[in-house]
Each structure stands twice: as C-alpha cells, then as structure tokens.
Amino acid sequence: MKIEYIDGELIKKLFMGAAASLEKNKQSINDLNVFPVPDGDTGTNMSLTVQSAVKQIKSLNSNNINDIAKAMSNGTLMGARGNSGVILSQLFRGFANGLKNKNKLDTKIIANAFKLGSNTAYKAVMKPIEGTILTIARECSEKALEVSNYETDIIVFLEKVIKHGEIILKKTPEMLDVLKKAGVVDAGGKGLLIILKGALEALTGGENHFFEDIDDIENEMKIVDDHDLEDITFGYCTEFIINNTDANVDDIRNELLKAGDSLLVVGSDSIIKVHVHTNNPGDVLMKALAYGELIDIKIDNMRYQHRSKVISDETANEIIETSQKKYGFITVAMGDGIKNVFKDLNADYVITGGQTMNPSTEDILKAVNQITAENIIILPNNSNIVLAANQAKELSDKNIYVVPTKTIPQGISALLVFDEDLDIDHNVNEMNSIIEDVKTGEVTFAVRDTEINNKKINKDDIMGICDGEILSVGNDINEVSFELIKNTVTDENELITIFYGEDIKEEKANQLAEKLEEELKDFDITIIYGGQPLYYYIFSIE
Asked: Which string of b and e fits 87-124 if b means at least 16 CB within 10 Å?
C-alpha cells in the first residue's frame, strides 16, 4: 500500500490514532520520571492536552484541513497542562500553521509543518534544553525535510522519521545529565514518538481509535465551579466555541457583559472560546451566532448540580469581586491547610493542583476571569505549571504578572513580602527576589528502585528532598525528615515552618518539631497543618 496524499478526513483519523496511542501509553511515559517521586505526570499531561483537541475535532462537521488544523491548535492550546503539554501545544500550533490553505498534504508539506512546529516550540521556551522533547521534535523535523526530498510515500516517510527519532531518544541520557543519572530517556520525547507511531498505525489500517468517552477522560483533571446554592445568581454555566469567525474578541465580550457573570472570552486563529454564567443561555447563543458558527456547546444547570451533589472544595476557591481593586492573586495548591494559608494571605483564587495534578491553560484563564483587579499576580508554586501560567497570560487581555514560584514555601513567602502600598513593578521585583532566598524541603516515598548520586533507593523508601536534591533516605518518616533538615540549614537560616500532610498526625509532627528544637536551639519552628497528599512534610527554611 502506497499513500502519497492525505485529505481532511484522513487527518482526523490520524490525529485520533495519535491521541489513542498517547492515552494507551501514558503510564509508560509517566514511569520515566527522573526522580522516583509520586508525581511523574508527563504522560498524563500530554494525553489530556491532546484530548482537549480531540473533543474539538469530534465536534467539527467539516473535513476541511484548515478547520481541522485550527481545532488541533486551539484545542491543545487551551488544554495544555504541565511543561510537556505547553510545549506540545506549541508544536501543534506551528504544525497547524504549516497546513494553512492546503487541500491535501504530501511529504513535503508535512515535513515543512513539522519544522514550523519545532521552530514555534523552541521560540516559546525561554531557555531551550537539549535532550528533551524539543530535541526529538527538531531532529524529527530535520529528518522529515531530508526524507521528503526523495520519498513520496507518506507511510515510508513516517517510518523513517520515527526510526530516526528513536535513535535520538536513546541518546538523550548523553545530552542531559539528570537522565543519565536516573537511567531513563526523556519522557516528553518518548511521548512525541508515541504520537507519531499512533498516527502511522492509523494510516496503515491499524485499530480505529475514536474516543467515545472523551468527557470522562477530561474529568480526571476538571476544575469545578464551587458555589453555595444561595450564591448562584446565574444558574446556567454556558460554554461554546465560535468557529470560523473574523469577530473581535472585545466586541463579543462587550456584547455578553450584561448576560451574566464569570465571563471568559479568549481567541486564537479565528476560533473564540466563550464561558459565561447566565440565566438565559438561549439568548447568549443567539447573540453569539451573529459572529459565526457555534461548536462544542455545553450548558450545565448549576443549581440542579448543587442539589444533586454536594460539591467539595477540592478543585478551586472562588471569590468573585464586584468592584475593581488594584491587586488580585491566583495561586495553585493542594491540601486544605495550605489552601487556607493562601486564603489568609488574601489570595483571591486558589486552584487545586500541583504534583500529579497540573491545571490547564484554560483552568488558569477561568481563574483569571473570576478576579476584577487592575493587576493580577499568578503564583504557580510548581515548576511544571509555570509555562501554562505564562501561556494563560499571553491569551488574556488582562494585566497579568507571573511570579515563577516553584514550591509552596516560595508562594507563601512571595505573598508575605507583598506590599499593597507599592507599585506593581516594585512588588513583582520583591517577590521574585524573595523566592530565591527560600529553601524548600519535602519528604515523600519512592515509587521505584533507583540509584541517584550514589544513594541506593528502593521502592517505598522514604526520601528527604531539598530543592530537587535527595539528601536523606530511610524507612522512618521523622528520622528522614530530621536528617534532611540537618543537612539543609545553615548559619544564615533562622526560621523553619513545618507543613504536615494528610497522612501525618499532629502528634507525630509535634514530635519532629520537639526533636528539631532540641538540636537547633536558635531556630524559630512553626507547625502548620497542610493536609497535602503524597508529601508527608513540606518544610520552608528561611
């Protein structure tokens, strides 16, 4: 069988095959986590990012290549989770640009689209690191350009590109020392090759992969609006996409401002996403129809949902301001205690997320929409959420600043140093400065056997980690924690805050604090219930 051209219908099939392959193999990608900690989520993030585009493509009533490319690009852009998901969304964004105004695709067009994808992703990352998904994307695109000069059969073309990608993937440990020490290849790079293999399988007549339960998959990470029944002024959560439109985002936003609240209008490449709480969804849809065709329409009765199911505060803390203030804050955290700390520090919106649960670009945009403030500051509190926060910033027309906090202690310290009487630039500079002075200790368990920095670690061992370095390993939680702190503090430090997790009793946390007080007599030690999962303790050391 020889295939020299791909039309729109076949592109859909290939994309669905790629998405199915990624979903099927996401755990094997997660297992490539460099550290043996219970937060390897690269595969999950990549899959959920692609699922967002699958949902848009399934709703298309068109086999036009431009329409499909836009759905790929916008779906992954809005659904992007984690650094791997954001980079993947940029790969699809560039790839989609390479398909513009094309009626059918040959190897040359596909190769150029691959290269545009790689270039777009590299530009989106401030400091590109070789040995990652970026390297695999670049190498595959360069090989694609080479092969397209002589090969017209798309099946053979993809086989050669994938084979080259696999060779480069095996070399990633030589490019990146952390991969070599952990004895793994790059997870994101493997995920990208799995996507290409899934597309090839669909092209060659492999199993037809179409998700009928896509909503269930998306719900793994869905953020739910949290309301008390008496607070629900507008009862219908209405979401849809305006497709094939030349409309201005501001015009649509102004048209719908009086329709309700919680209005979110964002657009990219002739597709505009709308979210609004209203009492008359029909009226909203009629107004939107004036700007283009509507797809992916979803209407939820929030009052009915509230009566039928008590919605917990597991997903978000939402405070809707009725008048504009100077500053608003969005932060990301897990654990009731830690979320309450951020609320006490005047965070307007706490998105539940962090390890194993990275919010998407759209989730962050929804949080932005809840705040009426002149300036909005986002604290991601996780290195794997920073890119999604920055992507949300680029998509929003609000004045947003991302302070790249990578841990919970950094986020708390950033809020503590904030001074409402100072201007935004001064505050952001102070917040960026203070997070460099905060040490973060974490105690968790190993999910696999490994050896890092000459430390032999067995599955289920307790590990003490400080700013990404494993400093203590053992079988007793408090003993490992005590050793971690001793190996972390210096004469310049004087404060230790202990956030104990959901699996630690207060009595046990007090025992650790007492032992630390005996050893470190000049330190102020504070105990706070964090309630965080997976991590027995989180320590802030200043």
From this structure: bbbbbbbbbbbbbeebeebbbebbbbbbbbbbbbbbeb
Domain final residue, candidates 216, 250, 275: 216
pLDDT for residue 237 is more than 90: no
Q: Which residues contact 133 (CB under 8 A, 6 or more apart)?
A: 84, 87, 88, 121, 186, 188, 189, 191, 192
Structural tokens at position 320: 């809707």
Among 308, 339, 367, which residue terminates a domain?
A: 308
**Is the confidence at residue 308, as pLDDT, over 90?**
no
Same domain, 183 and 37: yes
Q: Which residue has the tokens 């060659």?
A: 204
The CATH number for 443's domain is 3.30.1180
Q: Is 176's pLDDT higher than 60?
A: yes
In which domain, by residue range, is 367 found? 321-432
Total structural domains within the chain: 4
Whether residue 345 is found in the same domain as residue 466: no
Structure tokens at 138: 């670049």
pLDDT band of 288, cuts 50, 70, 90: confident
Alpha helices (H) in 231-374, listed in sequence order? 249-256, 281-289, 302-308, 336-344, 361-369
Average pLDDT over residues 429-433: 94
